[in-house]
Structures are given as structure tokens and as C-alpha cells.
Amino acid sequence: MNDAPAGTRQPRHLTRRYWRAGFLRGGIELRHLLRNPKEMSGHLLNVVVALLVAGFVDDDVPGTHIPMAHLALGGFAAYLLFQIGLINLPQMLVTEREEGALLRLRATPGGIPAYLVAKCLLVVVLAVGTLALLLAAAALLVDGPLPHGPGGWLTLLWVTTLGLLAVVPLGAAIGAVLPNPREALALIMLPTMGLLITSGAVFPITSLPVPVQQVASVFPLKWMAQGLRSALLPDAARAAEPAGSWELPMVALVLTAWAVLGFLLAIPLLRRTARRESGSRLTARHRKAAMSGAMPA
Fold first, then answer.
1. Gap between the Cα atoms of 246 and 215, Å rounded
2. pTM higher than the cut 0.85
3. Which DSSP string do the residues of 34-66 spell out, in sequence order?
4. Are 199 and 113 in contact (CB under 8 A)?
5. Which residues share a beta bridge with 67?
6. What is the 3-state secondary structure (H, E, C) of 108-175?
7. Confidence band (pLDDT; 50, 70, 90) for 129?
8. What is the Cβ-side half-sphere exposure of residue 137, based on CA atoms within 13 angstroms?
């Protein structure tokens, strides 16, 4: 009689333990990040660049009296979330894999689940903190936009949440298949910058050719930017959107679809990477990197 209850309680107990270990690890990594001036300067530089661009944009959104700088700030806010999920997270995963962290975690009970919880916590706190810093600094320094009323804040909250759910699992999946840290940035930076230009994050997407708009509409950045603009800008700014409206149901649908796709890809890819990791593979990668001069012999 005692075996059955124990069998049903043990998974719950282990799950709680993994979550607790993940949050503890995430808190430690977050403190290390905050104490690392080099890492923090990169994120602060992105905010400074967004503010500089907004400060030098003088035109109004076509057909309105809304400053183009406000539209650009809404797009940059979406891009910062997108960048943290699809550039920073894959680089973290690949770098730590090359350092042997994944191999060490395989020998630790519950190490992989706790590691994933920690990384999600780190990325979410970093993304939300960067977004809050951008909006606060923009409001103080360049008269940037803020949500109007409870509805605007609610839209900001759910678009940010869905946007992170759409890009963080996808970033984890990308990090699982990238070959090494030296190639990771080159492989993901070019398409990401292409999406920044074609998704209407910096200037109205309606100024781009229709085929470019259609391609951009497949990816989450365009909808993240549109959703954040709906939270930050007055309704008159809808004139700069292709459909003449915010299309919030479509924003929710597309971001949810990408979130589901990301989870479906990330979990098996991360498990596959963890299973394939071994001491011999790690040693071979280190030897190859040393021969190429990418790391000391």
C-alpha cells in the first residue's frame, strides 16, 4: 500500500526540486550578469542606440501628427526582446556547451531541467528589465511614449509575454544546433538584422514592397512590434499599419503559433544535444579550436 503513493508523489517532489534548483541557479547567474560590466554594457548599448535613433528622427508618421520617433521606439522595444531570445540565448547555450557545462549537468540528477529553468529565468528578467529601461529612459530623455490607461498596460504585458514565449524556445532550439560560439553570431546575426529592416521595427512597414511585407508577416518580430506599438501609440498610428488596424487577434495567433513551434523544436533538440554530448566530443572540439587559434592550446 505504501508503494503506490510513493510512486505518485515522487515525480511531483522531483519536479518541485528541479524548479527550486533552477530558480536558485538562475538567481546566481543573474547576479553574475549584473556584476559583469562587459555583459551589461552590451545591453545598455542597445538602449542607447535606440534612444539616439529616436532623438534624430524628426518626421511624423505619414497621415498623422504622431512623431516617427515614437513608432521607432515601439519597434526597437520589440527588437530588444527578439534579440535577447534569438541572439543572446543561443550564444549562451553554445558557449556553455563548449565549456563542458552540458556534459557536467548530465551527471547531475535533474541538472538539465534545472539548467533550462535557470536560463529561461535569466532571459525573461533580462528582457523585461531592458524593455523597462528603454521605455523609462525614452519617456524621460526624448519624450517617448508610454501606455495610456489600464488597457495599454495590459496589452504591453500580454504582447511582451507572448513575444518572449515565441522567441525564447526558438532561441533554445537554435542554440542546440549551432556548431560553436565562433560561428553562432555570424549565422544568426545577418538574418536577424534582415528582419529588423523588413519587419517595420524602425520605419513604417507600408513603405516596403508588398512581397517584403508578406515575407516579414511570417515571422514573429513584425507582430511583436505591431503589438507593442498598439500599447504605446494612439489609435491614429494605425494608419501606418498595412491593414489600417492593430490586428491584435492576429498578433496573438501568430505569436502563439511560434511559441508552440518553438517548444516542439526546442525540447527534442535539447534532449538530442544532451544525449550526444560526451567527453570525447568535448575534447575533440577543444583540440580543433586550439588548432585554429580560437582558444589557447
1. 18
2. no
3. HT-HHHHHHHHHHHHHHHHHHHH--PBPTTSSS
4. no
5. 60
6. CCCHHHHHHHHHHHHHHHHHHHHHHHHHHHHHHHCCCCCCCHHHHHHHHHHHHHHHHHHHHHHHHHHH
7. very high
8. 19
